[in-house]
Amino acid sequence: MICALSKPSRRRAGVLLLMFAGVSLSLVFLEGSKQGWYLVHESPLFAAFVAISASRLWESGNIGARMAAVAQAAIVLLGVAILVHIAGNRNLQRQYQPAIAFLNDHAGPQDLVFARSEFYFGLKCRTILRDDERLGVLSGRRANYIVFDSDFEEQWASFQKSNPPVYHDAGQRLKLEYREVFRNVHYRILKRIMSSS
């Protein structure tokens, strides 16, 4: 909003554009994993561009331009409403924290847990965590606990086409050596109950 009200900021939109290009290019060429959550680094620049654009459209006095400015504001408000709704679901408290609590209560420092890296922040003993989407087929490790979430499930399902040997080997291991010990809407935890022969 400050950008929209500040004429010097609007005059320096070219500098913002250069900053945006620099951040975008660094994410494209220097950041290896190309994960969507790194777009947070561009969000302030996107917000500045929307504010400048809406301000210029509104000041033009053209009815079409003003309608475009109102549409931009409506899109921003819709995004905020979606974030408020997501925050209201309290997924951290209702899904993530119970899964973390289960692992903290059952997994010890001698155990190995395959789960997404987000579990690093909640585990008491962080050294037990490995983010191994191939479930140890390539590394030879056998996890005591495996945490599946929707992202892990999608990655796992993709192996059926992209890497059938990994899918088959890990699938056999899951059937023979593991059983489900925890489940909620977002997470499913399997425990190793027997050693492979």
Protein described:
The protein is of the alpha/beta class and 197 residues long. The chain has helices at residues 2-5, 7-11, 13-30, 43-59, 63-88, 91-106, 150-162, 164-177, and strands spanning 113-114, 129-130, 145-148, 178-183, 188-192. The chain folds into two domains: 2-88, no CATH class; 91-192, no CATH class. The protein has eight helices and five strands. It has a five-stranded mixed β-sheet with strand order 2-1-3-5-4. Helix 3 (13-30) runs antiparallel to helix 4 and helix 4 (43-59) packs antiparallel against helix 5. The chain starts with a helix and ends in a 5-residue tail after the last strand.
Which key features would you list for this structure?
197 residues; alpha/beta; 2 domains; five-stranded mixed sheet; elongated; single chain
